[in-house]
Every structure is written in C-alpha cells, then in structure tokens.
Write a structure and sequence with these properties.
- This protein has 115 residues and is of the alpha+beta class.
- The protein has 2 domains: 33 residues, no CATH class; 58 residues.
- It has 3 helices and 2 strands; from the N terminus they run αααββ.
- A two-stranded antiparallel ribbon has the order 1-2.
- The longest helix has 17 residues.
Length: 115
Amino acid sequence: MGLKPGLWFYNIARNPSGKGLRYWIKNNLGEEPVLYNPEISDQVVDLITRRLANEGHFRAEVTFEEKVKGKRDKKVELLYKVYLYKPYLIDSLVYPSGDTPPTGSHLFASQQYPD
C-alpha cells in the first residue's frame, strides 16, 4: 500500500509559518488526511447486501448511522444495522430423465448461449 502524493506533500511541508515554499506546497499540492469517506460507507452497505444475498437472504435490509464524536476529536462512529428475513433454501434438485442437452450446447468461458 503506497502513500498518496497529495498526502506526502502535506506531511513533508509540516507546519509552515506564513508564506514561502513550504506554505505553497502544503496548500497547493498537499491534501489533508481523510480517514472517513461517506461514499465508502455506501459501498460497504452494498457489499454486505450482496454477501447476504449469496447466503440466501435476498430481502435483507442494511442501513448505517454515522455519529460524529466531537468537533475537536474529529472521530466518527459507524453503526451498521442489518434486518434479516428467513433465508431461501434449495431443498433438492430434480433433473428430468431422458432429456439430453442439444448438440453444441457446451459453452466455453465468455461465450453466450445462441438464441
């Protein structure tokens, strides 16, 4: 995992006083560190929803709440809420006997079934 260039410039400039090269680097090239991004929380909700669907919970509802823990500390607490319903389960599969697939129906990776 590498360091982002904007963050590197921000850290290398430290705390410049007034004008000068460090001040210009920090304010024009530097980016403040960001540890929380609300868009990532939305992506996590989508990820949790998809993983639950893979387990058979197709109607699961996932939400999140964010609580800012103080202006000075700049901490954020995230609470994810998951509402589950009874999962869908496949009891058994029945294949009709005597049915044979049509000739040429075997597909390779990235092929579409012909219409």
